[in-house]
Amino acid sequence: MTATILDGSATAKAIREELKSQVDSLRQRGETPPGLAVVLVGDDPGSRVYVDQKQKACDKAGFYSIMSRFPAATTEAELLGQIDRLNTNAAIHGILVQVPLPKHIDESRVMHAIDPRKDVDGFHPINVGKLMLGDDTFFPCTPLGCLELLKRYRVPIQGKRALVVGRSNIVGKPVAMMLLREHATVTIAHSRTADLPGEVGRADIVVAAIGKPEFVKGAWLKEGAVVLDVGINEVPHPTTPGQRHLVGDVEFATARERAGWITPVPGGAGPMTIAMLLQNTLKARNQLVSAK
Ligand code: NDP
Q1: Do residue 145 and residue 264 come from a single domain?
Q2: Scanning 21, 24, 97, 168, which has the fewest C-beta atoms within 10 Å of its C-beta?
Q3: Which of 207, 212, 274, 280 is nearest to 249 (CA)?
Q4: Residue 261 and residue 203 in one domain
Q5: Strand partners, 206
Q6: pTM of this prediction?
Q7: Residues 150 and 200 reside in one and the same domain
């Protein structure tokens, strides 16, 4: 069996175009467009690439966006002051603070300071709690992108055995809760899991969010399984000396021969994450405007 590719790039492009046409209609009616503020502290090159991608996607979809860049030496109080200003800025409906933050800043204090109604990353404890309770909320963008890909490709979830490898707050735990909401039977694996190959072999749906290049082997998979590879790992290129390239947490070449559906890296979960950020920002805008 050769897997169907779950094409995150093409799906994300289609979603961005759908969002753009909604935003165009708002602008034509003279209504407020969705506004996203991205806050970047320091000069981590990886973070800079991510925030540039996010801002470019905003611009292309007709969103209003602002970027607040702060030097690495910014104090926590200065950053909290900026969050406060963004919380009360009526043109801004979504606030995203790019992590990691410099070590002298308490990341959770900053995340907790964001107005939960503008928490388009879905990391505020109120929104995490709503996810647990089964209420509507801002679902974190990467997990939401994974679920959206499955829905758009009409991959069944209900009643399936899902394995999430990784238990981080930004990917593993929320994606597990979201699969549970879709009525999958969910197992969460982590670094202390006793028999990972055995767990993988029992799963109809495998989400890999580990951060270790090609850690999950194709041979472990159940024939026909759905594989969502969230990992992004930069490794030396196998044939071009001195060059580096991106691989996921799943050994793609062998996995695609056993899986029924699989996301590539790059071009799977990554582009979907950005499309979901825009979707969440439009949702925040609509909720804030209708609450006025
Ligand atoms: P974390 O480092 O926060 O979590 C990694 C998880 O993997 C931990 O729960 C850890 O377990 C688990 N793990 C580590 N080693 C093993 C092992 N040997 N067996 C089983 N589980 C193991 O990572 P994130 O969740 O933040 O990110 C995961 C990956 O996804 C990274 O490559 C990251 O770059 C990528 N990513 C991609 C995004 C996208 O847009 N596509 C967005 C966010 C992340 P334990 O808890 O026991 O330590």
Answers
A1: yes
A2: 21
A3: 212
A4: yes
A5: 163, 227
A6: 0.97
A7: yes
Query: In this model, does residue 1 exceed pLDDT 90?
Result: no
The three-class DSSP label of residue 34 is coil
Q: What's the number of domains the chain is made of?
A: 2
Atom 16 of ligand 1: nearest residue by CA position: 191
Residue 194: per-residue pLDDT: 98
Residue type, 222: K
- The answer to whether residues 150 and 244 belong to one domain is yes
In a domain? residue 235: yes
Residues lining ligand 1, Cβ inside 6 A? 142, 165-168, 170-172, 189-193, 196, 209-212, 230-233, 269-270, 273
Q: Which pLDDT tens digit goes with each residue over 131-180?
A: 999 999 999 999 999 999 999 999 999 999 999 999 999 999 999 999 99
Range of 264's domain?
Answer: 141-270
Residue of 230, 246, 273 with the most ligand 1 atoms within 8 Å of its CB, for mutation: 230
Q: How many CB atoms are closer than 10 A to CB 192?
A: 6
Q: What is the pLDDT of residues 110-145, one digit of tens each?
A: 999 999 999 999 999 999 999 999 999 999 999 999
What is the residue with the minimal CA distance to atom 34 of ligand 1? 232
